[in-house]
Design a protein that fits this description.
The complex is a heterotrimer of chains A (about 500), B (about 110) and C (about 190). Chain A has 19 helices and two strands. Chain A is an all-alpha fold and about 500 residues long. Chain A has a domain of about 210 residues. In chain A, strands 1-2 form a two-stranded antiparallel sheet. Chain A is globular and about 70 Å long. Chain B has one domain: Helix Hairpins, CATH 1.10.287. Chain C folds into two domains: about 130 residues, Four Helix Bundle (Hemerythrin (Met), subunit A) (Up-down Bundle); about 40 residues. The N and C termini of chain C lie far apart (about 65 Å). The chains are: A mainly alpha (about 500), B mainly alpha (about 110), C mainly alpha (about 190). Chains in contact: A-B, A-C, B-C.
Chain lengths: ~500, ~110, ~190
């Protein structure tokens, strides 16, 4: 009665990127025990090779559609996030290898946890099943808690990790409770079954009711479930009202970990959020009942977006620490990306994907700059950057490009992205009025101009007799590459736009 | 037991609210972690209330609810393990388990 | 009769949950939590989930509670000095705010649940032979359609084990401590 083919092994080949990452993580852990080196570049190299192999497999699988094990969906939307996640994780590993302060610690576990978090993000962005979504989210979160507390000897790191785990636990509880209410009214954990796109649950028992039916029978429960699930996502993407942990945790964590949290983990959260709301509300074949409900969800998301960007930007104005400023700036950017999701149509989702791609380039670069300077000067304040501009142009000029792009000034990729978000806010789903959100986005960009340009001013227009910082060639190469991509994709954005558009196979 | 599903859901809502209250009111990190466990338990109860409801309607048992509950129990266990490991690391450093959660962390931000 | 038992178990688990939150002594909180979980396990049993009731007792009562108790004892949280230090740290505004948030959350939850209109099963909530979580069926689900999630959980447990070990391990390398103190001095 129980045969081997019941194990659904036929989907295994579709999961090769995930399997590659798991294997790499295990090899790193094992070789760490065999080599017993404190400062091993070889372990980092293994991690990079594994991530590269996973990325190659993802690129070659572009366009493949399929479902592995009834749980993981192979599509371009997931592929987009998986590709950028492996790239960002690779950058974080390079950061660890370049950072002298990190090398004092046992490094094998560091790489292993980074890779585990990446696997968690892979699961989270690639599934329609809420069970696997929770599992992936928890894997990413738990690895991140340990990473945030990796410098446990340092007070800030221990406190950051403590805060992170406490609020992470709260958000997990809130989200799982929301999912449980949704399950109680629909009888399924699969988003496509809820939306009615699939008639038969691939792993369920055929007792499911669609969201439209559930909305009719118990609208209160559905609304509550949506709010609670949004609350859970809100923690992961650090949007209001669960954003206040972010600056403390980002500041207290080791900088490579901050980079991972602010870039890979946040984008992964957006991947899961966009899939959830996209499939349930934006897909073209949702019923009339759900379509009417969609605009209320859109309005809630729009309010969250406006609050997030405003709070993030206003707080960033007051910061004197570069790391904390970048942390608040990344909170504000979560608000920008949400604008596209709040538009609740395909164009909006595309704009969000495009902006997330731009976000990867700009922020990986900005955090690389932070890592270099805090490594050289031992400080993270704006003060310590005074007059550094002309002294290390290969490092500071790229930073200026990132800052300009973060502000959203042409010709950088950040400008192109913001323009699309503005269009998205102008033309949202039928019956949704988001003109005010476009105005809010514009005003916030003006506010952000002030604090981003303050960094440029400190770097180039002020003088100090600090010595020339010691150059670090690999970091300079990396920063120049990121700056090049930021400008290149700002001018020739079609490939990136096509990539974002191809990710919209989610909605068909 | 012939209790309607709504009563199970009400019980789970009460437990969830108590957990949330504990999270907001207590500053002892160990108790805060316990409150999170309570919230996850409330979610489990709601899952099983749903599974029971759907099973009664369909006339046979359904796998999703119970399977999800086993996974949530696993998640709760690892959450507690990592949380308590951090409590120990934190205690070694600060000799306390209470965290002023809403104030900015660390010496660096105070100096600013 | 069985229904009455449900309400008793529900009352016990709610009262114990309240006890977790209001006890000043963490040891008492742990014991209250154990009571609450036992009440919930009894409800699982009454509702027809025998396997999960056993799991609830084994994992929560046997593993998680011991973990909590172990840490409370390790850090000496039950002794009078630690208790005195933890008391009186909560501000009045914080108390009011927390109560307001939790209370309004409860109100919203109850209203939402009260307004739901779930269909009533014709034959009542009876369960088939073997309960609502038969062991064979659970195993087939776990290693059939959900096998990937099962494997994912193993990655989760491995990552947790590694993370917990790095976090709870005592620091041996001195340079870190020295560097961090100099850093604080500079800040």
């Amino acid at each position: 009665m129980f045969a081997l083919q019941d194990l659904h092994l036929q989907g295994l080949s579709l999961l090769s990127p995930e399997l590659t990452l798991v294997t790499t993580a295990l090899v790193v852990l094992m070789m760490d025990l065999i080599w017993k080196e404190r400062d091993s570049w070889r372990l980092g190299a293994i991690g990079l090779v594994g991530l590269g192999a996973a990325a190659l497999q993802l690129v070659s699988a572009h366009g493949t559609q399929g479902t592995a094990f009834g749980l993981v969906s192979i599509d371009n939307f997931g592929g987009f996030f998986k590709l950028f996640t492996s790239a960002a994780t690779g950058v974080c590993i390079v950061f660890v290898m370049l950072d002298r302060r990190e090398r004092r610690h046992r490094i094998g576990e560091y790489y292993f946890l980074l890779l585990s978090a990446a696997i968690g993000i892979f699961f989270m962005v690639g599934t329609y099943n809420l069970l696997l979504l929770v599992l992936g989210l928890e894997l990413a979160s738990l690895a991140s808690y340990s990473l945030a507390g990796f410098h446990k000897g340092e007070k800030r790191s221990a406190e950051a990790a403590m805060k992170y785990v406490v609020f992470g636990g709260l958000s997990a509880g809130v989200m799982v409770f929301g999912i449980s209410l949704l399950y109680a009214v629909t009888g399924t954990l699969d988003m496509r079954v809820m939306s009615g796109a699939l008639a038969i649950d691939p792993v369920g028992e055929g007792v499911a009711r669609s969201l439209a039916v559930a909305l009719e029978q118990s609208p209160g429960m559905v609304a509550l479930a949506m709010i609670l699930i949004l609350g859970g996502f809100s923690f992961k993407i650090s949007s209001a009202p669960f954003h206040f942990w972010a600056p403390d945790v980002y500041e207290g964590s080791p900088t490579p970990v901050t980079t991972f949290l602010a870039v890979a983990s946040k984008a992964g959260g957006f991947g899961a959020l966009m899939r959830f709301f996209g499939v349930l509300f934006v897909a073209p074949d949702v019923g009339e009942m759900v379509a009417a409900y969609r605009n209320e969800i859109g309005m809630v998301l729009a309010l969250v977006a406006a609050a997030t960007m405003t709070l993030g930007n206003l707080a960033a104005l007051r910061q004197t620490s570069l790391k904390r400023m970048l942390a608040y700036s990344s909170v504000a950017h979560a608000g920008y990306v949400l604008v596209g999701v709040a538009a609740m149509n395909q164009a909006g989702m595309e704009a969000s994907l495009f902006y997330l791609a731009a976000y990867y380039f700009m922020n990986l670069g900005a955090f690389g700059f932070l890592l270099y300077f805090s490594g050289v000067t031992g400080r993270e304040t704006l003060e310590s950057l005074r007059g550094m501009g002309p002294k290390a142009p290969m490092i500071t000029v790229p930073m200026v490009i990132f800052l300009v792009s973060l502000t959203g000034i042409p010709p950088m990729v950040g400008f192109t992205g913001k323009l699309q978000l503005l269009y998205a806010a102008m033309g949202p789903a039928e019956g949704l009025q988001l003109g005010w959100l476009a105005v809010c986005l514009g005003l916030n960009s003006v506010i952000s101009l002030y604090y981003y340009m303050r960094v440029v001013r400190v770097l180039f227009l002020e003088d100090s007799d600090e010595p020339r910082p010691e150059p670090q060639v690999p970091m300079a190469v990396f920063l120049c590459l990121m700056a090049f991509l930021t400008v290149w994709f700002g001018l020739f954005f079609t490939p990136l736009l096509d990539l974002a558009r191809s990710g919209m196979d989610l909605l068909t | 037991m012939n209790v309607p599903t709504e009563h199970l859901l009400i019980l789970s809502a009460i437990l969830f609210a108590i957990g949330m209250g504990g999270f907001l009111l207590r500053r002892n990190m160990i108790v805060v972690l316990m409150s999170i466990e309570l919230m996850l338990n409330a979610a489990n109860l709601a899952f099983l209330a749903g599974a029971r409801q759907h099973a009664a309607l369909a006339g046979h048992w359904v796998a999703e609810g119970p399977v999800m509950v086993t996974f949530v129990i696993a998640v709760a266990a690892v959450e507690a393990a990592v949380g308590l490991a951090l409590v120990i690391a934190f205690y070694r450093r600060k000799q306390t388990v209470s965290l002023d959660r809403l104030s900015p962390t660390g010496a660096a931000s105070k100096a600013n | 009769m069985v229904d009455l038992l449900f309400y008793v178990a529900a009352a016990v688990s709610v009262l114990c949950a309240l006890g977790v939150v209001v006890s000043a002594n963490p040891v008492q909180s742990v014991m209250m939590l154990l009571g609450s979980f036992t009440g919930i396990a009894l409800i699982y049993l009454l509702a027809g989930f025998q396997f999960l009731a056993a799991i609830q007792i084994l994992v929560y009562g046997g593993a998680i509670m011991v973990l909590f108790l172990f840490v409370v004892m390790l850090l000496n949280q039950g002794d009078p000095v630690a208790l005195a230090r933890e008391q009186g740290v909560l501000h009045k505004e914080q108390l009011a705010g927390g109560l307001a948030v939790a209370g309004s959350a409860l109100a919203v939850l109850l209203v939402a649940v009260a307004r739901t209109d779930l269909p009533r099963p014709i034959f009542g909530y009876l369960w088939p032979e073997g309960g609502l979580d038969p062991l064979l069926g659970m195993a087939q689900a776990m290693f059939g359609p959900y096998v990937l999630a099962f494997e994912g959980a193993s990655v989760l447990l491995l990552a947790t084990a590694v993370g917990v070990m790095t976090l709870a391990k005592r620091q041996r390398n001195k340079p870190v401590a020295a560097a961090s103190t100099s850093e604080e001095a500079s800040a």
